[in-house]
Sequence to fold (111 residues):
Amino acid sequence: MSARERLHFSRETVIRRARAREVGRYPLLLAAVAVLAVKLVWFAIDRVPLIFMGDSRAYIYSAIFNQPLLDRSNTYGRLMWVISVLPGTLTTLVLAQTLAGAVTAWLLSFF
Fold:
């Protein structure tokens, strides 16, 4: 390989490596990673479920006793049964809500 070919080869290598390190190359992927990291750190700091006695009591009752609610949607009670009652902890529900919030924040990064 001649000196000219080596110079051309090394120049292309430098350009290729610089392009691979571009931060703005995948902005939505970076936004997803950043949002997920922040949400998971926050979940690690505070994973205690908050109970609001009107709604929380009704949905927990619906999930545990499999009773339909007359004044609220029954879907969330059934979702709680799958996510919380089967594993036996509300922490899985908090994690599911954290991940749903991360997806929502990531979708808002499109706008």
